[in-house]
């Protein structure tokens, strides 16, 4: 029997493009792990997060950073968040579950999402054309996260900083997701 070796590929093949002073780039160096709180164990998980990461479990709509800034926790709904952190390999779940002393349920979401970072002076203007949320800095400041729809596609949006956003959409619609953002950027040039 032939020896078959599978190799992971980014959803958008490492996409990177400049639009004037604004850059759209695929994020390929991050793991994404879903963390869910077991019923009745919220306090145990909060303590484990404080010990392991020096932070708290985020409330929906916000994110928290680990003390060293290496991991960001995205509050997506009550009792569930995504951990986003640099990681290579196939054992991202073990890294999170081990750090949290198995006080949570984890699933690896890394290969399930196409992740793009949009940064620069045209970022907000381009997003306003396709996103129904009010993304102005007073309404959606750095650290805020939300689930929304852009061009009929489900998207998670995180504001990292002024004019700097991380956008995530299911991998199955990666090309349509990229096309929607590219088109919006081209229309505001």
General description of the model:
The chain folds into 2 domains: 89 residues, Gyrase A, domain 2 (2-Layer Sandwich); 82 residues, Alpha-Beta Plaits (2-Layer Sandwich), CATH 3.30.70. It contains 4 helices and 11 strands. A hairpin with a 2-residue loop joins β10 and β11. α3 packs across α4. It is globular, with a radius of gyration of 17 Å. The termini are far apart.
Class of secondary structure makeup: alpha+beta
Could you name the CATH homologous superfamily of the largest domain?
Answer: Probable tRNA modification gtpase trme, domain 1
Distance between the termini: 54 Å
Low-pLDDT stretches are none
Shape: globular
**Overall structural domain count:** 2
C-alpha Rg (nearest Å)? 17 Å
Strand content: 25-35%
By CATH reckoning, the class of the largest domain would read: Alpha Beta
Supply the CATH architecture of the largest domain: 2-Layer Sandwich
CATH-defined fold name of the largest domain = Gyrase A, domain 2
Helical fraction equals 10-25%
The order of strands across the largest sheet is 1-2-8-11-10-9
Order of helices and strands: EEEHEEEHEEHEEEH
